[in-house]
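not sure who needs this but someone in the group chat was asking about Protein kinase domain-containing protein from Hydrococcus rivularis NIES-593 so here u go. i didnt clean anything up, its just raw.
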Amino acid sequence: MSALSPNTNNTTQYSPDPDSSKRILPNPSPKSAYRWNQENYSINRRRFDIWRFVLLLLLKLWLNGKKWSYKGGYEEAKLFRRRKMQAAWIRESLLELGPTFIKVGQLFSTRADLFPAEYVEELAKLQDQVPAFTYEQVVAIVEADLGKPMNKLFRHFDPVPIAAASLGQVHKAQLHSGEEVVVKVQRPGLKKLFTIDLAILKKIAHYFQNHPKWGKGRDWLGIYEECCRILWLETDYLNEGRNADTFRRNFRTQNWVKVPKVYWRYTSPRVLTLEYVPGIKISHYEALEAAGLDRKLLAKLGARAYLQQLLNDGFFHADPHPGNLAVSPDGSLIFYDFGMMGEIKTNIREKLMQTLFGIAEKNADRVVNSLIELGALEPTGDMSPVRRSIQYMLDNFMDKPFEEQSIDQISEDLYEIAYDQPFRFPATFTFVMRAFSTLEGVGKGLDPEFNFMEVAQPFAIQLMSNTNGRNGSNIFDELGREAARVGTTALGLPGRIEDTIEKLERGDIKIRVRSSESDRILRRLSALQLGTNYTLFIATFILSATILYVYGKVQAAIAVLLLAIAPAWAFFRLLRRLDRLDRMF
């Protein structure tokens, strides 16, 4: 992400932002005195603030499922409005809780397989709104990490940051050689704060993992480990420098892409010094036109650059929003901020090939099997609902020509199917889909007629017919492999039949048959038995109260009648549940 000078009109983009979150300028605000931003904050108070947020969130989620909590009766539209308000409250609460939770919220904005669309949409807007730290703290960190006084390291160092965010802030500087640079300095005490917060988050992850409702089919501890890995990587500026170098090498033959150079002599785990590469922010359309740049060409170049990263290099920018993209006066694209990168390995590309062929054939079984191999789908006992969902999506997805598809609409369809299903989209997959959607939005801003899929079509054809020349994976090879697979299956069929017959003879095969009518009858019998018990309790209490009343024990009779309220209420709820079951079957 880029940093902007507070003295500009926001048309010129200068340097990478402190992290991949939304840009903010270090203007003082009423919220500048965050408790977590103090040097000596209370750990117990930190625990209290975090657990208070979690418990309030759990209460709100619990109330969502209670129809009596809706004024005037339950309606789907009321649930939707309530979720929208809750999502905004979650976003504001994460901002108050600070860097760890801002970054976690941004990561969760890619997990539409875990959260409702309203929450994901709001989390995607999550921006840093945190104060800059002092120049004295900047000097202390730079001198401690680089081992020299500031005047020996830089000819000039601007004490006012040009951008501040949750993980750090950026200052413009000049080396003694005369080269203009930007220096990214990590927020003091950040790793200490991460250590405390992540220890608390681990306990929260354990709670959710063991929860009877929210823990079912969810690997919260795995999600926690993934968040930890990404967060610690983002705090290592040496890793970001290596990412920038790799990205720069991948585009070394493309003169229409520029990547800032890393100055390793002035870089450490908490300090990153990069080449100063000015440019016009890609979403400032008037400035682009004033510079005489072709907006339609820029839209295509943005898509082309990302497709090359994804399909040719296998190493891609995971957060290509407008703040991380600029345009030089000669029309070249400039990429900033390499803290969050994605990688697609060769074996993953081969499995993705199977998914692509399954989509092209409208073969839900093949898509399901390939997604299981990719780890994006968790196999369950009965996969037929998932298979039907995928088949439905394929039938609708293939209605339009490939080049007329919308990435954003495809993402929404995928996430709609994935939510509350056994899909487990890997972080790489969700980063890719989010990046595609973001780039489509950037392209449409530059050119209203832009279509990402139209630009992607040649790359997709190349991928499906060649897989970049690897292993000769073209259509004919695929057909040959399919023929060989069918032949192997046919040859092995007699042995499999014989093995099945042997298992039948030994009694090792169990056949499960599920009948909706049988289920209905069993549920009803169970409910009736429970209802009988409730009736006996109620009758016993009423009879006891009557006897007590007859013998003049009025207060005791009232107490017994009050005890009868509990089984009576349970009996009433049981009758309502029976009515719902009858309507379901």
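also Residues 1-32, 468-475 have pLDDT under 50 and may be disordered. if thats useful
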